[in-house]
Amino acid sequence: DKYPYGGVEYLSCTDFKFIFTRGSGAEVGSERDFVPFKQAVDEVFGGSPYSYSFYELGSRPDGWKGYSYPAPGIGISTWQRFETSIGALLSGGEYNDYGDSVESGAIEALYYTFAMEHACPNTKIVYAGYSQGAQVISRALQQAGPTEFFAALTFGDPKLYLPEGKL
Length: 167
Fold this sequence. Notes:
By secondary structure, the chain is α/β, with parallel strands linked by helices. Helix content is 37%, strand content 14%.
């Protein structure tokens, strides 16, 4: 199989591939997270000689090898969101639905990166994440090799503000 990690429709070969990870509670294609990021990239790259494309973690219904980033909501609006928030705060984001989401997203990012390397070896990978998504990217970077990505952009990583204050 030419694409052992997934279907070709998710693996477009371009000069740059932006792998984006949304924040807590945001839906795939969120007007709050993904759309502004995509618009900013379009402003910078639009009209340039470089081709680029996007993949948003969690956008593939079956995920990659069964991993699909869910981005559960946090806050006080429901008991589950409150429990997830407390669990994330007390564990540094390692446990409960929040921790499972971060781990699942990091694994999905890595599987997608490996698929891109196989299908499109000349494509430069750029990781980007907002809030919980930034924590996902930070986790993926800890496991990725230095040649597996070109750049990483994180915005509002909550791990930086949790009690231990470190990545």
